[in-house]
Amino acid sequence: MPGIDKLPIEETLEDSPQTRSLLGVFEEDAAAISNYVNQLFQAMHRVYDAQNELSAATHLTSKLLKEYEKQHFPLGGDDEIMSSTLQQFAKVIDELSSCHAVLSTQLADAMMFPITQFKERDLKEILTLKEVFQIASNDHDAAITRYSRLSKRRENEKIKAEVTEDVYTSRKKQHQTMMHYFCALNTLQYKKKIAVLEPLLGYMQAQISFFKMGSENLTEQLEEFLTNIGTSVQNVRREMECEIENMQQTIEDLEVASDPLYLPDPDPTKFPVHRNLTRKAGYLNARNKTGLVSSSWERQFYFTQGGNLMSQARGDVAGGLVMDIDNCSVMAVDCEDRRYCFQITSFDGKKSSILQAESKKDYEEWICTINNISKQIYLSENPEEIAARVNQSALEAVTPSPSFQQRHESMRPTVQSRPPTARTSSTGSLGSESAALSALSLDSLVAPDTPIQFDIISPVSEDLPGQAKSSGQSGRRTNPFGETGGSKSETEDSILHQLFIVRFLGSMEVKSDESPDVVYETMRQILAARAIHNIFRMTESHLLVTCDCLKLIDPQTQVTRLRFPLPNVVLYATHQENKRLFGFVLRTSGGRADSRQTSICYIFESNNEGEKICDSVGLAKQIAFHAELDRKASEKQKEMERVKEKQQKELTKQKQIEKDLEEQSRLIAASNRSNPSSGEGQFVVLSSSQSEDSDLGEDGKKKRESET
């Protein structure tokens, strides 16, 4: 390196203008160094902050990759290959995060510390010495000025001595301060090179160490893993491109095929009306009355589900029941100034709805479909064939009928002859429809080819297998909090009464009742079957938990729909994630003909009370268990008391016999002494009557003694 320029410390006392001029040059150089070092410090601090941010972001990335398998994605959340791949990436990125953390520490020690020390200590020292030197120089100039103003004529020795002392002190202070200031400026010429080179050296050494650690982590195995992942990404990209091409082709084909359907009322010659439908879905406008003569129309999605007409607003998850269309009447009506309107009226005439179709084709198909459903054609094996037979009547139904009252009167006799269990059979058919579905997803926990029952079969129409129905039990109204009438409630003696609002989802037979997985699998299959078959209707009931049984009670009539004995409830659990779902397994016997025990799993939905219901059932079983133990202990205690009492009676009887024998012996001895000749005969007589005395009471004994 070239030589370092210096300030002459020897000339500080002389304080010549040349020295002051050279000092100004050094001060300008110190100011330039300070400005440059501040900029360099800011740049290095940005590097350090960026490295810290990179280290934190890398660590966060690794953490998020580890949490991928814990995320609940609605689609493709169970991809094990993806999860394992991301776990491997998380491991590698975690190692890189550690390397970045080490690099941040090294940058803080080797780069930021030296330049910070130079900026905060050395440069501030120069500024401080400059201020002190300036003050000392000003004080010296002021002292010299006062000394120069001393008068020759009126010279005071005391004033002269004071001024002289001030000059001495200020000059000494200026000299010393100037020497230290010059020394600091000379030293700064060396420190500025160190302050610039040392942080750069530390930065490069930290980067070299970081790259060495990175090369050690990037092994051949990792390179092979990255190569495989790159190949997989390319394969996925090719599949995506093929899928995009297929979707584009599908879109083009659909656009060509659907062009005639864009018209609200397509040509009936190209799109004929299907009159043998038993299912129909589409958007309809429903009329809602807003006043005596005013009304509004609301567009909703309507669909048929079995014998029900359902509606679902856009954005809703499930549909709601609009009307039961079994044996209903449907007719075309003229409504205001709207076209394609028809009216559906329930059988009893208490509920009606006016709907508007979008086109004439939909209008006629809706009327034909509802006509077919009203005749319960959907319950037959071949609904389309039977619907074709009644096609003529469906065509007549398109035209307006004279009046609903006439149609209602003409259909009344047929309805009166309708069996009371017809509705149960219509809903019960849903279980047979879902048998094919459940057969696709059953495993070892559920019996094969098991139908799913979606509705509650009341004990009035069908008894639950393995349950004996007592006389007068069916149809009797039950107060869940205990009856106060003349008849005593069967749950009145129970110390536990807890009532919950539940909705029955379905039940099915299961093969095992030992693991909660049975309940979880049954929940999954029933919910899947409901979703596939668009079954949204659920029967709401009150579940009463007592120490004897579980009861499903009709909330309106208070009639017990089903009764489950508590000892037969062998398993109960709530859903692991959706706490509104819970279920229990009921173990029942097949009856007299079939003694095989079967297990049926019942699934319910509650108002976020699944865990509470399970806790209540568990508490009821504990109370029943302890009550059974107390009953057995009481019976055992009574049996022991009876045995003890019997032993006491035997002991008392034995003592009485011994006492009678002693009394007889005494009497015989006394009789022999009074009449020795007749002693033997008397002994025989008394001996023969010994057995009789043992059976006599106290009065008999006294009478016998008097006779003797």
Automatic annotation (TrEMBL):
Keyword hit for Cytoplasm: yes
Membrane topology: Peripheral membrane protein
One GO MF term: identical protein binding
Region (Disordered): 397-430, 457-490, 635-708
Localisation per UniProt entry: Cell projection, Ruffle; Cytoplasmic vesicle, Phagosome; Early endosome membrane; Nucleus
Segments crossing the lipid bilayer: none
Domain PH, first and last residues per copy: 277-375
Keywords assigned by UniProt, alphabetized: Cell cycle, Cell projection, Coiled coil, Cytoplasm, Cytoplasmic vesicle, Endosome, Membrane, Nucleus, Phosphoprotein
Bias-annotated ranges (Basic and acidic residues): 635-665, 698-708
Pfam families noted in UniProt: BAR_3 (PF16746), PH (PF00169), PID (PF00640)
Polar residues bias: start-end ranges: 413-423, 468-477, 671-691
Residue intervals of the PID domain: 500-636
Main location: other
Biological processes, Gene Ontology terms: cellular response to growth factor stimulus; positive regulation of biosynthetic process; positive regulation of transport
Matching InterPro entries: AH/BAR_dom_sf (IPR027267), BAR_dom (IPR004148), DP13A/B (IPR047181), DP13A_BAR (IPR037929), PH-like_dom_sf (IPR011993), PH_domain (IPR001849), PH_DP13A/B (IPR047236), PTB/PI_dom (IPR006020)
Record's keyword annotation contains Nucleus: yes
GO CC terms, sorted: early endosome membrane; nucleus; phagocytic vesicle; ruffle
SMART domains according to UniProt: PH, PTB
Record's protein name: DCC-interacting protein 13-alpha
Source organism (scientific name): Gallus gallus
Protein encoded by which gene: APPL1
